[in-house]
Specification:
The structure holds two protein chains of two kinds. By secondary structure, chain A is mainly alpha-helical. Chain A is 45% helix and 3% strand. Chain A has a two-stranded antiparallel sheet. In chain A, helix 4 (99-106) packs across helix 5 (114-124). In chain A, 9% of the residues are buried. Chain B is α/β, with parallel strands linked by helices. Chain B has five domains: 5-36, no CATH class; 50-91, no CATH class; 112-184 and 383-493 and 509-562, Rossmann fold (3-Layer(aba) Sandwich); 197-379 and 589-594, 3-Layer(aba) Sandwich (Dimethylsulfoxide Reductase, domain 2); 613-740, Barwin-like endoglucanases. A seven-stranded mixed β-sheet of chain B has the order 5-4-17-16-15-6-7, with helices on one face. Chain B has a six-stranded mixed barrel with strand order 22-27-24-26-25-28. In chain B, strand 2 and strand 3 (74-80) form a beta hairpin. In chain B, helix 5 (128-144) packs across helix 21 (520-531) and helix 13 (310-317) packs across helix 14. The interface between A and B is large, with 39 and 34 residues.
Chain lengths: 260, 741
Amino acid sequence: MSTNDDKAKEKAVAETENHPGHSEDKKGKGSGGSILLFFLVGIIASLLVGWVVFPKLLYSQKKQPINFNHAFHVETVDEGCASCHFFREDGSFSGVPKLAQCTGCHEEAQGEDPEEIKFVTQYVEKGREVPWLVCSRQPNCVFFSHAAHVELAKMECVTCHGPIGESTHSKIYEENRITGVSRDIWGRNIAGIKRNSWDRMKMEDCAECHAEAAAKEVSELEGPMEGFFNNAVKIAFPKSLSGRKTSVQTQNEACFVCHK
Amino acid sequence: MKMDRRSFLSFVIGGAAGTTLSPLPWKLTDDLAIWSQNWPWTPVPEKGEVSYANTTCMLCPGGCGITVRKVGDRAVKIEGTKGHPVNNGGICILGLSGLQLLYGPTRVPSPLRRTGERGENRWQKVSWDEALAWVAEKLADLRGKRLSHTVACISGTDGGTVPRLMERFLTAFGSPNFIRTPSMRDSYEMTLHLMQGAQASIGFDIENADFIVSFGSGILEGWGSPVRMFRANSVWKENGVKVVQIEPRLSNTAAKSDKWLPIHPGTEGALALGLAHVILKESLYRKDFVGTHTSGFDRWSKEVVEEWTPEQVETVTGIDKSTIVDLAKSFANAKKPLAICGRGKGNTAGGIGEFMAVHSLNALMGNINRKGGVWAVPGSDHIHWPEVEMDAVASAGMQQTRIDGAGTDKFMHARHLLHRVPEMISAGDPSLVQALFVLDANPYYTLSDKALLKKAWAKIPFILSFSSFMDETAQNADLILPNHMYLERYEDVPYAEGFNKPFIGLAKPVVSPQFDTLHTGDAILRLAKALGDPVEKAFPWEDYEGCLDDTFGDQWEELQEIGYRVESDFEPGSRNTAFETASRKFEFIPEESKDAAKNVMVKAEGEEPAYPLVLIPYDSPRLASGFIGDPPFMIKTVPDTVLKENDLLVEVHPKTAQSLGISEGKPAVLKTPKGEARVRVHLFEGIMPGLVAMPTGLGHQAYDGYLAGKGINFNDLIGPVEDEVSGLDAAWGIRAKLSRV
């Protein structure tokens, strides 16, 4: 006695026997091409997402509250950048000027520029601080001393900040939606490739300069695999593991000089 | 083309490979690392310019100078002001925690009008115009009904421009009921008044004394100006100055003293007279002073010699008679001995007999108004406002008896008797107080006899709090008109408790007001304006700052710059402050209070055997027990032998605990004639057997989640005990029963 199931099985076996190899060939040829195709589609799509879509999604675009003309101000003032971005008496760096510094000249509008008039009416007269969006601001966990770099190492502003003093208008501020910091920290190039020293300001960029300055100090590197971390730190902060202090000011070891 | 399983997998692999070759995973990893270090609840220091602003702390009557470190507009740290005459760079834990009061969640953000039942904590925001108009309307109504005298104000301080403006407002309005909260200031003021005829504050030249006998004063617990006392204690240690601490419990002060004499609580006055007895008997007193500058000495010494023999004093105080004799001799033989009193932080008034007994001891040694002694410091005289022109209503109101009875025949010398107010209100019908203002005080928490207080509170139709913080009084008020907190406002602080030189500190705004608050000085001026003449014309100032400017005149700028004014070359008695009694001498037995000496001890409420133990409070520098509650920093420093989670621990001697069958940490019920509370027991050999000691400053119902609901309020378990002679609240403890559960 046979059931319906048994009959179906028999039929299937009979079909296979009649056309040996046929179905395997078809499968092999067709799937080989499509597998490659799907692989390519996957790779291209993900590359597009990673290189094009992701950066677009990652950053939001914001306008500065006032369109600021650096070039004009640099021409007008006597002491260059330090006229507005100065060191305080206690050695700390003032950063972006407060309203109090601006009102020295802009108690009233000096000209006809609509941006200046907007600044005077909306901020100076109301005594409100301008909520500038600061492109160079590092995350809160980073400590950076301007005094050590500008006063002691005599570095130029432009080395890290670029030719911002020549700009005639404020560019669009792009904010990283995840970290809340400016796109300028990672750099415009999503791959992190830079042409100028000021294009990005991640730890590697700090390290690059520090390594260069003290390259002669680096003598013995360990093997590439086992000493990866030590080598990285040695290159970045050459004095730390060689028994000498990284920071001249604080006489402290490497990591906590910058990482709070 | 159909996608089968293999194609799909290949798509995924391609996607993965592509993703790896794109910046996405690397950039995302980096971003997430940064994101994880910048979560919004991670505290981030302010960025900006660092600056320092000097002002005066107003959290206790200490009058310390404080320097606030600011970054940008944010105050980030409070330090003691270096070179300040009171605290010279030092600061206490409460002063240090002030920023949590400034930025913490206990602030009253705007005028609030009660919407629910009293104490339900349901409020409606109202505008300042609306709120002040409402108060003015209520006041005008009372004045119209000739009930101006039923408006009362409870104030934490007096003498400064803000309490004086309030007092002036009440005078012009027609009410004599400006009542200061009780403290040892009351008893010391009265002592100076009775024995020296002086209207003055007490000052101690502690830094120059060379032998200290403290009758329960918490030198290291916050007595006087706390930081000054801490520093003095260090100086004493360096210079070998002896400190003898007399109190029933091993407090911080007792632990750091050279000698601790445990005494039956409430008998400190008897010991003072016992010491006087020995000094008189052995003729060790300073005859030059006693002979020429005192009156009533013969009668007083006869009484003391007859009644307070070391044997009798031993029976009363529990201190061995040879110890009494030794102590009296050491005290008398010191060059500049000093006796001080006022229990704990001095937050209660105390009996006048005890204060006079201790003061007599100083007089015997001739150290009144002398280097290293007790000085009568004249009250600040910076306020010279024109006399208030009263109309008929105001005059009639001002002639009414004060609610607290201070200044009446019965309590002639008392200026403020707040503890009497709840009883008077409860007894009167309708309430003797129709409107109550509360200024820099938290009477709903600090007044004892809670049942009576609640009854009285319910009878007051309108209660207005000026508190910057949501304290118990504000929570049980009808309207809150929040003052700027002390770091946001100008105010003169006219004395530093126990400081021996005339002193005025100035509180200055170090940050701009954080909320929609108004300076109470301005609120009073605006209320006066809203009421119109004759109240309005008593206030000829545009605003409070104008009033300050006018009050200090040409000294205003200097005061603003320096932040305080001190007469550093002040010599006591060089001004007419010493001995303005009828006899122009120091009175050992003032005519007006002949019975004071007989009343050196006040009995605690309650009887044996229902209450076999005695409950006493103890103060701690870690527990703010005045009108301010502990900020979070402070409550975290309270050890778990005092507060375990929300349970308060009472201290009991192991022997007492054994007889009650209670062991360490076990729960118990503490019952007094005034209340009952569930506590836990901490066995402590530093407390005399038969006593139960309880910390003050806990059991808050208001403030924030860090403080509310923690422990028991000592004031809920005790009631006032009126000193018959002075009328002051002399309660130092209450009989109690502790039973296991």
